[in-house]
Amino acid sequence: MISFRNIRFQILILLACSVWVVSCNQRDETGVRFRPAKQSVLNLIEESGKDTVCSDSLFLKRTGYKEIASMIETHLPEWNRYYSRLTPDFRIEKFRIISTVTIEPEEIMPLNTGKELAKFLDLYRPYLIWSTDNQKAIDIFSYNITLEKDENGNIYGFRDVDSQLSIIDLVRHKRIVLMTQGPSVELQDGFWLNRNVFIIAFSKGIDNDTYVPGLMLIDIKTNLARYYSPGKKIQVKENKYLRAKFKEVKNLW
């Protein structure tokens, strides 16, 4: 026979579990509920020993549209000017959140060392997005653009249709692939806000000659990615931002 005390104990356990599930679920500003990741990308890099992530990210509550606009104007002035030139309606402060999602690393692989790493950095160092301590970098180009240097020092490029967002950890020699994008998305630029959070600027193709600019705000401590897009429907007929960034590379376009 099951005693009243046992029943009461089971009920308390169920209530405790329910509270834990609710506390670990969060909502973004669009009202969509999402679950934080089990393993923080930052923990993979810094090996802090924590197994779970269950906390609000700083940017989820405190980073507003005006702050985003100021950051883009400061850190990505060329990107801001490029789209402002294409359409007078382009204003970062009018961007709005469209979703917040949890990202899980797609792949974790050892980083090349020795001559292979030196060759990679010789080619891609100018295009990597370095953290302030230069110990890790965001790589949004090497999967999409293959660079080769000839005997005369000329650099040639060859493009693939897909792209990847990865973090390179030079201390522990890891490459952590956060996401892979298909041909409709072009990762274009980015910068670190602090050791946890960075912003990636991109464009998304609607059809063969129409594109929409966007921003991703990613926190690798909580594995949360927030997507921003123009508040009003902004579409441009040009997608040549990377040509200026890779202007020294031959045979790319």
Key terms:
single chain; alpha+beta; 27% helix; five-stranded antiparallel β-sheet; 14 strands; 7 helices; 253 residues
Terminal residue distance: 78 Å
How many E-type strands?
14
For the biggest sheet, the summary is:
5 strands, antiparallel
Could you tell me the radius of gyration in angstroms? Answer: 21 Å
Strand content: 25-35%
Helical percentage: 25-40%
Strand order within the widest beta sheet: 3-14-13-12-11
Question: What class do helices, strands and sheet pairing give?
Answer: alpha+beta
Oligomer: single chain
One letter per element, helices H and strands E, the order comes to HEEHHHHEEHEEEEEEEEEEH
Average of pLDDT: 81
Q: Number of helix segments?
A: 7
Low-confidence stretches: 11-24, 28-36, 47-60
Structural shape: globular
Structure description:
- There is one protein chain.
- The chain has 253 residues and is an alpha+beta fold.
- It is built from 7 helices and 14 strands.
- The protein has helices at residues 4-24, 41-46, 58-62, 65-75, 77-86, 114-124, 241-245; strands at residues 26-27, 33-34, 96-102, 107-110, 129-130, 136-139, 145-149, 155-159, 163-169, 174-181, 185-192, 197-207, 210-219, 224-229.
- It has a 5-stranded antiparallel β-sheet with strand order 3-14-13-12-11, with no helix packed on it. A 5-stranded antiparallel β-sheet has the order 4-10-9-6-5, with no helix packed on it.
- Strand 13 and strand 14 (224-229) form a beta hairpin.
- The chain starts with a helix and ends in an 8-residue tail after the last helix.
